[in-house]
Amino acid sequence: MKPSSHSTVFFLVVLFLASWHLFGGLNDNVTSRAAMVSAIVEQGSFRIDTYAEQAGDKALINGHYYSEKAPLPALLVVPFWWAARATGIADAPVDGVLDPALIRLGGFLIGSLPFAIIVTLLWYQLRRSLPPQGLSASIVALSACFGSFLFVQSGAFFGHLIGGMFLLLALLAFNRNHGIWCGLLSGCAVLCEYTNAVFPLLWAILHFSRGGYREFGAFVLGGAPALLLLATYNTVIAGTPFMVGYSHQVGYDFMHSSAGMGWPNLTHLWHITLSDYRGLLFYAPVLALAIMTTILARIPKWWKDPVLLPALLTIVAMSGFGGWWGGWTYGPRYLSAVAVLLFYRCLPSLASWRWSTAALPLFACFGMLCTFAAKDTVGFSLPTEFMHPMIQVVLPAVGTMHAIDQWPVLLGVPARWCSVLFLLVFVAAGSALHLADRRVALDRSKRA
Q1: Residue 421 burial by CB count (10 A; 0-12/13-18/19+): exposed, middle or buried?
Q2: How far apart are CA 332 and CA 269, in angstroms?
């Protein structure tokens, strides 16, 4: 198999698995973005007054409602939903009711597609960095991502995965000294999720230290369109380029001052890193193993690393955010981009030690058991008040409910059988991709 064909097949298989579940419900987060898309297409306006009752997350500015989310994910869906409406594939909304098809479309474009791109980029890097006869790049990439909270967001119209995808692409541009592309992609990441801004801020400093004014100028030039778009959007909805929609969010008074940001908190830091409440390393166990092996490798000048220091600062900063827990969510969703970049930075180190290679199946199985159980039952809807959501919410639901957001359900297949079928397809697909990796590696060794 040609390398290009191999990569295409891997991506399409992962995209199929990532699109098995397409959320079409009325979660506050997704309806806010869907309302913005529908308002633009139907009314040519950012005002979501018509959908205000269904849009749980919203900003109230000068008597009108707007989506308070970072705007790029919704703007990217607009042309696709406009095409669906223009061709008659989708009907006009009735009485301000958001179309579930719109929410699923957003889930595919902004959730499933970025997830598949992230997994493919991780796999591609692992193919080049792992020993040919050692760990399988396919198995590591699949188990790491599908066994993490990132997979639970796949198929949902959130902004975290696409923000992580843009940030990962920006990191690749940074590593290749492509300042303009790094700035442009970083800007896109921030327009998907404002908390991603820590990475480009530090990258700007590193660009200056590495290449002086020229490299720094290219980075700033690349990021300028995103800054201009954000300033224009803020001016349209709030009358000033310096105030984001979060500062006017309805029902969240803590957001009205400094967009909810405050001083770091040690208790919050514990819960978003290690605990089973929203812990990054609990809800991405392969990442925990990868970080351990990376630390043991004795990182030289880690403070100059384009991933490690920005990731650490982002985590600390999020511990001071007023809504640090993330609402009804599986894992620390505000740290999704951090997880993506740490995966890229740390996964190759898994092959550095025999004990980590041996421990990988245990960590991977634990992660996938948790995520598959959540995906098949409550999804990302883990209530805020439960401090041990896996034990208190997910496990009691196993066997008593099955996700109805699986696409075969729309064809009339019972949800229970869809869940079993997904597991079979996942195992078969993972095995096939692993064997394909081995065949390609064998072909390369023969040619060498």
Answers
A1: middle
A2: 11
With a CB cutoff of 8 Å and minimum separation 6, the contacts of 115 are 14, 18, 145, 150, 151, 153, 154, 161
Residue 174 and residue 219 in contact, taking contact as beta carbons nearer than 8 Å: no
Query: In angstroms, rounded to a whole number, what is the distance separating the alpha carbons of residues 186 and 207?
Result: 13
CB 85 within 8 A of CB 43: no
Q: Specify the DSSP element, H or E, that contains 65.
A: strand 64-66
| Residue 446: Cβ within 10 Å count | 7
Using CA atoms, how far apart are residues 339 and 379, in angstroms rounded to an integer? 19
Instruction: Report the predicted TM-score, pTM, of the whole model to 2 decimal places.
Output: 0.96
3-class SS at 398? strand
pLDDT beyond 80 at 132: no
Contacts of 420 (CB under 8 A, 6+ apart): none
CB-CB contact of 150 with 280 (8 Å): no
Q: Where are the domains of the chain?
A: 3-26+101-158+261-379+389-447, 27-97
Torsion angle of the four alpha carbons 289, 295, 299, 303, in this order, in degrees rounded to the nearest 10: 100
Average pLDDT of the segment spanning 312-324: 94
How many H-runs (helices) and E-runs (strands) does the chain carry?
19, 2
**CA–CA separation, 393 vs 399, rounded Å?**
13
The three-state (H, E, C) secondary structure of 335-389, written as one string: HHHHHHHHHHHHHHHHHHCHHHHHHHHHHHHHHHHHHHHHHHCCCCCCCCCCCCH
Radius of gyration of the chain (CA): 22
SS3 for 104? helix
Percent of the chain at pLDDT exceeding 90: 77
The rounded distance, in Å, linking the Cα atoms of 158 and 161 is 7
d(CA 98, CA 334): 25
Which of 263-296 are b and which e, b meaning 16 or more Cβ less than 10 Å from the residue's Cβ?
Answer: eebeebbebbbebebbbbbbbbbbbbbbbbbbee
249 bridge partner residues: 59
Looking at residue 4, its amino acid is: S
Burial (Cβ within 10 Å: 0-12, 13-18, ≥19) of residue 170: buried
∠ at Cα 192 (252, 214), nearest 5°? 125
pLDDT for residue 256 is more than 70: no
State the pLDDT at residue 438.
84
Pick from 66, 2, 14: nearest CA to 238: 66
Spatial distance between the Cα atoms of 389 and 112, rounded to a whole number of angstroms: 24
Residues 404, 408, 414, 416, CA torsion sign: negative
Tokens 């908190």 belong to residue: 265
Query: How many CB atoms within 10 Å of residue 443?
Result: 11
Distance CA 426, CA 434 (A): 12
The lowest-confidence range among 19-33, 91-105, 251-265, 350-364 is 251-265
